[in-house]
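Backbone-to-sequence.
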């Protein structure tokens, strides 16, 4: 009897071990999402936190854990700790690739956004009366970069502009609050478009161009005082009623509010008449995240969710135009009358940023 019991117990143990081996041999990725960690520009934080986006990514097999950084500061991070980087344009993406030693990575550019300047109504009216802005509606218009840069070069104060006396809250120098151009994409691209205009509507491409434009770039930045590392802080300050009367932002931040049916208040959206589009660029840092950028670009559900967060999709612009049509009083979906220009090389743009900061 003892011998029979021993044989039975042995068979049960063998079966149990075999069961454990079979379970260990199963691929856990077949029943669970793949968790990837990334560093993103702050303007994409709401997109990745959106419950619908979280679900759509999970349906495709991904759990994304994202943390924010200034786009031009990403290459200084410990990139080995991340599976992907998602800066706000292609220029800092190149720096990330170089720092990670992965030149030629399978980049993706799922969506883009032009720069805008958001203004208090009083500031927009005074700029319009002074010939620095051309209004096209109650809450939207075009910032004329030539006259604006001339005012900056002449150190003009608000109260020197026509009609400003009726708005005592407008005081001090006329300037646009930007982010730090050495670490933040929006601040760097503002210098790109401003230097283009200051350089005779030509991309700054050499040391001579830097010398011609650097003094004015210095005036645009030095007047601001402390600089924010990303667009999220200044934008939220403006929405809360604090902050400067003119704030640089991405169109996506405004469009997201409108498409999410949030009240924009009395915000006026000004499109610089010369602009640089910010093509958000996904850089996979390892095989784990290699296909995520393509998924964000091509999956219809994720594309539509990105559009609901105000981003212009690289594929399907007609859908964006249709979705934003009810908000034409704030948005210029066709970028009518806006001259789009290229950016300087990374080396020149960073030289301009350093000269601008002094």
């Amino acid at each position: 009897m003892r011998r029979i019991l021993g044989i039975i117990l042995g068979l049960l143990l063998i079966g149990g071990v075999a069961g454990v081996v079979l379970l260990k041999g199963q691929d856990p990725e077949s029943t669970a999402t793949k968790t990837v960690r990334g560093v993103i520009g702050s303007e994409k934080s709401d997109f990745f936190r959106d419950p619908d986006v979280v679900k759509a990514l999970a349906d495709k097999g991904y759990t994304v854990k994202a943390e924010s950084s200034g786009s031009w500061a990403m290459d200084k991070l410990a990139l080995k700790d991340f599976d992907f980087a998602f800066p706000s344009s292609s220029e800092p993406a190149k720096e990330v690739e170089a720092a990670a030693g992965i030149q030629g990575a399978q980049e993706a550019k799922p969506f883009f956004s032009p720069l805008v300047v958001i203004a208090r109504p009083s500031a927009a009216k005074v700029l319009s009366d002074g010939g620095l802005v051309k209004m096209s509606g109650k809450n939207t218009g075009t910032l004329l970069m030539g006259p604006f840069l001339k005012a900056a070069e002449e150190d003009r104060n608000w109260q020197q502009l026509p009609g400003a006396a009726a708005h005592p809250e407008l005081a001090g120098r006329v300037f646009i609050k930007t982010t730090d151009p050495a670490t933040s994409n929006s601040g760097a691209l503002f210098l790109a478009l401003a230097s283009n205009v200051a350089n005779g509507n030509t991309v700054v491409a050499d040391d001579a161009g830097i010398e011609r434009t650097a003094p004015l770039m210095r005036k645009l930045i030095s007047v601001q005082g402390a600089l924010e590392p990303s667009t999220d802080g200044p934008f939220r300050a403006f929405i809360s009623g604090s902050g400067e009367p003119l704030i640089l932002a991405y169109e996506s931040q405004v469009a997201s509010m409108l498409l999410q049916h949030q009240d924009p208040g009395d915000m006026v959206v000004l499109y610089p008449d010369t602009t640089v589009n910010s093509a958000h660029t996904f850089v996979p840092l390892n095989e784990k995240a290699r296909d995520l950028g393509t998924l964000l670009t091509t999956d219809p559900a994720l594309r539509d969710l990105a559009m609901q967060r105000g981003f212009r999709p690289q594929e399907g612009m007609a859908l964006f135009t249709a979705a934003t049509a009810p908000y034409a009083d704030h948005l210029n979906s066709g970028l009518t009358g806006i001259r789009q220009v290229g950016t300087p090389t990374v080396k020149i743009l960073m030289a301009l940023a350093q000269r601008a900061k002094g």
